[in-house]
Amino acid sequence: MVALKPEQVVAILLAAALQFGCGEAPKPAAPPASAVRPVLSLKQLMEWVIDPAADAVWDSVKTIITEQGTKEIAPQTQEQWDAVRNGAAMLVESSNLLMMQTRARDQDEWSAAARRLAETAEKALKAAGSRDAAGVFAAGGEIYDACAACHHRYAPQLNADPGPR
User: Fold this and answer.
1) pLDDT tens track for 100-134
2) I need a labelling partner for 10 at 20 to 30 A (CA). Which of 24, 100, 101, 152 fits?
């Protein structure tokens, strides 16, 4: 074993510091791959998930007026209230899917529209939880307005007049 003089130890440490300390800075690690990967297209998400969920809320409370009279529709059983709750919950969670980076058309108005959907659907969720038919009806109108405003901006073809019926 060779004994080193103190000045040799300092020289070796200095050389090591220069070699390792002055080299290229380490490259930052690549961001982790997102665990969230959309499976459905935006159109499929709308048609297969969001629209049926909205229909569950919209169809749950309504008034039908015919020549035979007026018929009030509202959930009566726990199963019916659960269906309204599930539809509203699906709308709330679907708003997060709309804000995914791969789906968002922009980070401002698109995200604001998705948040509005969530806020209005939360009202329906709360109303369904308390079995408040009038609250579900009012929230359903707000959900419709949120959807219509978004479609007006991002899917104007959906607002086109289909012609005579």
Assistant:
1) 988 888 888 999 999 999 999 999 999 999 999 99
2) 24
